[in-house]
Design brief:
- It is a single chain.
- It is globular, with a radius of gyration of 19 Å.
- It is an alpha+beta fold and 301 residues long.
- α6 crosses α8.
- The mean pLDDT is 93.
- The chain has nine helices and 17 strands.
- Strands 5, 6, 7, 8, 9, 10, 13, 14, 15, 16 and 17 form an eleven-stranded antiparallel sheet that branches.
- Helices cover 27% and strands 34% of the residues.
- The protein folds into two domains: 121 residues, Rossmann fold; 160 residues, Sandwich (Tumour Suppressor Smad4).
Amino acid sequence: MRPSLLIYNPAAGQRWRRPAPQDVVRELARNGWSADLHLTRGQDHATELVRTHLAPHHQAVWSAGGDGTLGQCAAALVDSPVPLGIIPVGTVNVIARECGIPSNWRRAVATVADAAQRRTFRTWRAGGRAVLLGVGVGFDARAMGRVSAGAKDALGMIAIGARGVREWAAYDFPTLRVRGEDEHGRAISLDATQVLATVPRHFAGQHVLVADADPADAFIDLVLFRGASRARLAAFWVGVELPGTAQLRVPGVQTLRARRFSVAAADGRAEPTHVNGDVVDSTPLDVEPWGTVQILAPKPG
């Protein structure tokens, strides 16, 4: 048996598809891994658990939760040789999709348990958190942050989508000042009314936000919505839901690659911000390069 640390989020995903912690331990054992189990008790607790309980003999850290839990585990493993294993039981599980890991948690364990392949993900630091998936400021952060925990637990993306319609109808298009440094080292100084930043290609599940985003490169991809057209904002999010990248062709949408960036509301408000899908911060927000993490993944193809 290969020894490992298992971080389990009992609040991740929908209750009807969430496995019992001991079932995850047993599934790992069937696939050759022993696991020291620890349950999270709240936001950022996974980071504390990894830092406290990771031992020299552990050959991997398994994250049983969603992208937020994975990002919290990653914050404790930046530039560590110990890889992360994904057990996808969250609402969306974008990083699992990016790595070609099955959405069914049992199949995911079986697929990844013997994987010699590792995917390198570069991380960015937002406060003390590791940006592994991405950051959102404005509309989508409001929608995710204001959906009730009960509705999200029961309905998942349906609840987030329903809340999104309400937020779209009321959105006031705040002026968000984006400053930083682009991929060529040039200064960024732009205003937008919605800011998305992504590390991988995928966003909101199986959808592709930026087709040529590379999680291993030294840049984070920004997608800026500029303007105050409710129709164009709707077109952007409809494009996200469709195959391809139609959202990037909506007038007023601009993309660029950045080495670092910051976002602040022009009027000084604390605009909600999500990091890896969890609404845990607000503007002003600084996103700086950090280091890399290794993720266990099947071979591409």
